[in-house]
Write a structure and sequence with these properties.
By secondary structure, the protein is α+β, with helices and mostly antiparallel strands. The chain has 6 helices and 10 strands; from the N terminus they run ββαββαβαβαβββααβ.
Length: 215
């Protein structure tokens, strides 16, 4: 399936689908900084790039500064390839849960914010823009459901912010970092219904066009 790419500008930043080799290298390097060097969730690589078998079957989005510095990125694994929760994180899914593999479903992974951010408020701002990017990409590609493997504490934060993520399995400590993690699914229809009533301005911000289709 050919997925639509997105590009939009928000608060002086550019958010766009990662397609060219230069942007891909930037995203692999950022992922290595976050997941290998900082969190130590993934074994370090001599070349300083974090690349795995899911990259060839996924779409990635990046948050860039005006001068092209990558400040954040996220990967969306498409349903024509096994999700991470079907291979690496099967223990996080209840046996009775039937994983959706329709074209209206994808899996969020490798969400990363540059560790060079010195102010926590700025880091949260970057994260909010990336969430908007995921929403914009989902709308453009008729994706309603998003799976994710997530830290328990961040799952609580997402639900508090208005992203209704439902648990689909137990909470477990995942090595090597042994952080409490879980699998969840987000339904964008439920997100719209909930925020239309509780956070209408937030929903309007998430939905604002400001984006242009590239393909």
């Amino acid at each position: 399936m050919n997925y639509q790419t997105i590009e939009f500008f928000e608060s002086g930043y550019c958010v766009r689908s990662i397609e060219n080799e230069e942007d891909k290298i930037k995203s692999y390097r950022l992922r290595h900084q976050v997941f290998s060097e900082l969190l130590e969730w993934v074994s370090p690589s001599p070349d300083g790039l974090e690349i795995d078998r899911y990259d060839h079957a996924s779409e990635s989005l990046g948050l860039f500064s005006e001068d092209g510095v990558l400040l954040g990125s996220v990967r969306l694994i498409t349903p024509d390839y096994p999700f991470m929760l079907e291979t690496d994180f099967t223990d996080l899914v209840y046996p009775e849960h039937l994983t959706r593999k329709e074209t209206d479903t994808a899996e969020i992974s490798r969400l990363a914010i540059t560790p060079s951010v010195s102010h926590p408020g700025l880091s949260s701002h970057y994260l909010n823009i990336l969430h908007k990017a995921i929403y914009q990409w989902s709308v453009e590609n008729s994706v309603r459901y998003l799976y994710m493997e997530i830290e328990k504490r961040f799952w609580r934060v997402l639900n508090h912010l208005g992203f209704p993520c439902k648990r689909i399995g137990p909470v477990k400590q995942i090595p090597p970092a042994n952080v409490k993690s879980m699998a969840a699914i987000l339904d964008w229809d439920e997100f719209r219904d909930e925020n239309r009533v509780k956070r209408s301005e937030f929903l309007e911000w998430m939905t604002e066009a400001q984006s242009a289709l590239v393909r």
